[in-house]
Each structure stands twice: as C-alpha cells, then as structure tokens.
C-alpha cells in the first residue's frame, strides 16, 4: 500500500509518498513561499539527486499540480502513474467539535470542513483545495481527513473553557480546540524514545514553530494545554497572525477606527504577527537577514517572538508541576539555532542551558542542552505525514 500525504500550510505544502508495508518514505517534498515571490519545490528521493522546481505558485492548487507532476516525472519521480497510490491522507486543521478522530472524506465531511472556514481561514481553505485537486486527478482513490484538533481532546475543562457564559460553549461550541496536534503528538513520543523513557513518566513542552506556531504541554503522554485556541489565531506571535491580544482591541478597531469585521479578520490573520511588526516579511529568514543589517523593527519582531515563546514555556512548566524536556520542531524550530537559543535564554532557573556547539544543527534529531542541564532541550524534526499515513491506512483497510 502506498499512501500520499498532503499537508497544506498557510504558505507552504509538505508531502510524502509512503510505503505503508515498511513505513519508508519513497519521496518527500516541500513547497515553500506559496503566494510569495520565490516559490520553490524541493523533492528528495533516496538514491537520486535533489529535484528542485522554481516557478511561480500563486496558490495551493497550482502547488498541488506541480507536486503530482514531480511524483510521476520520468527522471526524478518514483511512480509511473497516480494509479499506484492506494489512498491520500490530508491534514485538515479544524474539525470543530464534530470530529475528534480521522475520517474517510465524503461530501458530508467536505461540507463540515467548509463550515469551519470561519474558524481556520488561513488553513481549512487550502486544505480543501488539496482535497479537491487530488479528487479531480484521482477520482477513484479514497481520501482521508486527519484533524489537527484530535490530539488536544484530552485537555481538561479548566484549560479549554473560556470565561464566557457557559451556554456559548454548551450550545455553540465556543472553546479552545488547539491545533498542530499530529506534530505535537509525534515529537512528544519521539523525544521520549530518544531519551529512553516511558512518555507516561515525562512532562514535555513541545514548540511547533513555523509560519504558524503553537506550544503544547504534554504531561504523561497527553495534551493538557496548548496555545492555539478556538481558532489558530490564538496564542503566540506567528508569521502573519497576531496571536493573543486584548479582545477590546477588536472593538476599538471597529468602533473608533471604523474597520469592518472583514477588515479586522484580514488584519489579525494576514497582516499581523512578525510581518506586521517588522514590515519586512512573514518569512523568518527574511526578517533575520534584515535584523542582521540593523533593521530596528525586524530586531523588535524577533525579540517579541522570542519573549512570547519563553514566557509560555515557563507557564507550561507551572501547569505541569515541572518539565523534563523542551522540544523544538517545524520549519523555524528545526532550522533556527538562533531562535532556539533566544527562546531558552533566561530559563536557566528551570535547569536548562543551551550547548552552542550542539545547537548548531538544522533538521536533525539532537539534544541541544548541556550535559549538566536537569531539563533537556531537543531538536526533533516533526513527521506529521507519518501520523497521517498511519491513520489513512487504518481507515482504508
């Protein structure tokens, strides 16, 4: 059985074709800067040269088409036709309260995903584009939706309820859902394996840092809290998203500055975060380059980003009554040594210290804390695709 996994992010798309008999990746790729100048696809196949396609990709549909062409490419691909793909697993960010586990995609499921557009405006629409593009090209291939919200269903009520009239939760489902669940689940289990310990004996803070970003408190193997909330807009500062703000700011924008609700939604989701602060870009590499040249707003954007992550790690250590490991993952977390060091700076009182030499690593499993650290820090590349593929295999079988 070969499963194709499609993982559409807000400005990126990751994919893998996985042989589920061995769980080996036959091909894996990343499309970066979708909708941004400099769009590029990079595909890796063992035993072959890296395949790079640089071409404008204005939206996720164009990106999906290029991915499928790369997989069947005569020289660089790994399959002769789409018929070799048994099933496709799609990452879907928000399933509301309706879906607490993965499901086979039907018209009803697609309608439910569309109903959640308002809750995840940056992600559910590209998720759906990925689904529909694959359905069009592989109409007889089963599709599975794997929801980011599932892992966080273990949160206790004191963590997921807002201090609003209770009826808004019981009648309208307004609560914290949390996202990046497949990533937080994978890296927390992986770090327990690397440490040689039972995850049920560990308290872990996982930091999924990409264009979208969230932290999760994983105690004894389950999520007890996470930074994203009712939507992926909540929590720490992100690429284009504001993260947590005083809710009265929304009223001020509408009543005093005469913003429409659509204007506010666009502002908070697409024009804020490090993009809004820096005025440079939502891509951290661009901001770091500007900061290195002395751009004060770029420096400020990074300082705010690091501060919010650092204080949240401390908060989750308090929530769990301690912490054994801090894990960095996703695009920025895996590839940003400076970011990791800055986020941990000032947390020495918890018992974690960064080893600069060990921390000079990108995209590899590695402990980055010093030998005498009582709290260990790690880089763990995420593999949401494998989690999605496993669910897809189980549902299709």
Automatic annotation (TrEMBL):
PROSITE patterns reported in the protein's UniProt record: ACETATE_KINASE_1, ACETATE_KINASE_2
Location(s), subcellular: Cytoplasm
Active site annotation, chain numbering: 148
Cofactor binding note from Swiss-Prot or TrEMBL: Mg(2+). Can also accept Mn(2+).
Pathway: Metabolic intermediate biosynthesis; acetyl-CoA biosynthesis; acetyl-CoA from acetate: step 1/2
Top class in the EC scheme: transferase
The keyword Plastid is assigned to this record: no
InterPro entries in alphabetical order: Ac/propionate_kinase, Aliphatic_acid_kin_short-chain, Aliphatic_acid_kinase_CS, ATPase_NBD
Reactions the enzyme catalyzes: acetate + ATP = acetyl phosphate + ADP
UniProt: substrate binding residues: 91
Entry keyword set: ATP-binding, Cytoplasm, Kinase, Magnesium, Metal-binding, Nucleotide-binding, Transferase
Residues binding Mg(2+), per UniProt: 7, 384
EC code: 2.7.2.1
Binding site for ATP: 14, 208-212, 283-285, 331-335
Needed co-factor(s): Mg(2+); Mn(2+)
Entry keyword Kinase: yes
SUPFAM superfamilies assigned: Actin-like ATPase domain
A molecular function GO annotation: magnesium ion binding
Function, as annotated: Catalyzes the formation of acetyl phosphate from acetate and ATP. Can also catalyze the reverse reaction.
Subunit (UniProt): Homodimer.
NCBIfam families with a match to the protein in the record: ackA
Similarity comment: family membership: Belongs to the acetokinase family.
Protein name per Swiss-Prot or TrEMBL: Acetate kinase
Lineage: Bacteria, Bacillati, Bacillota, Clostridia, Eubacteriales
